[in-house]
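Re: [ENG-882] Designed sequences occasionally contain unexpected residues at chain ends

Forwarding the minimal case from QA. Structure tokens:
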């Protein structure tokens, strides 16, 4: 009887060992997104759901962060595995320039370009501002100090032949900018986000606004120096009271990873992401813009080898 019990125990141990050996390896992936009220967070949640449902052993979760700047730091420190980031910020991190000087990340790699982050310069109609040149002497919010918006604002001003010395600079987040525009404390504000942007929609509901174009020689000079910008049209009636198309420029939102992430995992993540576009579109309007055909447009850093393999085999 004792021998039979020992044999049974050994058989059970062997079965358990076989089960462990055959079980898929658990892969924990943390996705750095942005604020809960923004675009990155719901898209990140949809990505986690897609990957968990379709990749064996995947355990992905989306976490709210301070978006681009914070995400690069988190990726560098190994606290997240996939990040949402603007392509200009990724470029600065890779090249150790702009706000990332001295704290760049040479090992950052591209996963996919997602959708346009439109540079929107909004002004109160009462300010009389119609062109970038009209900003001279005005109270202008250029975004939070050191933010991606601030870098965009500085570069656009430079392309127009202006510096911060030519305007009355305010370093405000866009929520703060919108509030100060409503109260008449500032005349204009830069914002970089997918259009339509809720804060501008809300502002336009109570104030007469204008969208200042970034076009012509200014756009040409900007794109010649910074290749990550692309021309963009903000369609008429995107915002109340703005009844004509407005030409401007955009950077791209993108997904990035560390070069240390396994090639096969990266390949599988891209494969399942693009196979489940309807889930991304359901999570946020901008999700419908995430397409395989444009996945390398505006890619400002080297692709991860797993991503290179995927696009080589699947890009049309």
């Amino acid at each position: 009887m004792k021998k039979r019990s020992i044999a049974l125990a050994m058989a059970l141990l062997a079965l358990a060992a076989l089960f462990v050996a055959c079980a898929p390896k658990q892969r924990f992936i943390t996705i750095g997104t942005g604020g809960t009220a923004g675009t990155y967070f719901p898209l990140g949640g949809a990505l986690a759901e897609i990957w968990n449902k379709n990749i064996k052993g995947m355990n992905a979760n989306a976490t709210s962060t301070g978006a681009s700047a914070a995400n690069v730091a988190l990726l560098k420190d190994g606290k997240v595995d996939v990040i949402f980031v603007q392509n200009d910020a990724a470029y600065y991190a890779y090249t150790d320039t702009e706000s990332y000087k001295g704290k760049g990340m040479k090992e950052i790699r591209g996963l996919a370009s997602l959708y346009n982050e439109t540079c929107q310069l909004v002004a109160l109609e009462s300010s009389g501002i119609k062109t970038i040149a009209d900003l001279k002497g005005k109270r202008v919010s250029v975004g939070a100090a050191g933010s991606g918006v601030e870098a965009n604002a500085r570069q656009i001003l430079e392309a127009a032949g202006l510096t911060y010395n030519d305007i009355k600079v305010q370093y405000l987040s866009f929520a703060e900018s919108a509030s100060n525009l409503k109260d008449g404390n500032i005349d204009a504000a830069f914002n970089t986000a997918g259009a339509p942007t809720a804060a501008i929609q809300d502002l336009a509901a109570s104030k007469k606004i204008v969208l200042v174009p970034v076009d012509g020689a200014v756009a040409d000079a900007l794109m010649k120096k910074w290749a990550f910008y692309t021309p963009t049209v903000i369609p008429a009636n995107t915002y109340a009271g703005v009844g004509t198309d407005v030409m401007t420029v955009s950077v791209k939102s993108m997904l990035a990873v560390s070069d240390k992430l396994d090639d096969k995992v990266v390949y599988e993540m891209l494969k399942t992401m693009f196979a489940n576009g309807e889930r991304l579109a359901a999570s946020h309007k901008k999700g419908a813009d995430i397409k395989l055909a444009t996945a390398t447009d505006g890619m400002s850093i080297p692709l991860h080898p797993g991503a290179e393999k995927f696009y080589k085999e699947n890009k049309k």
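QA comment: On inspection the terminal residues look reasonable. Strands lie at 27-32, 58-63, 82-86, 108-124, 139-141, 168-170, 188-193, 209-212, 230-234, 246-258. Proposing we downgrade this to a documentation issue.
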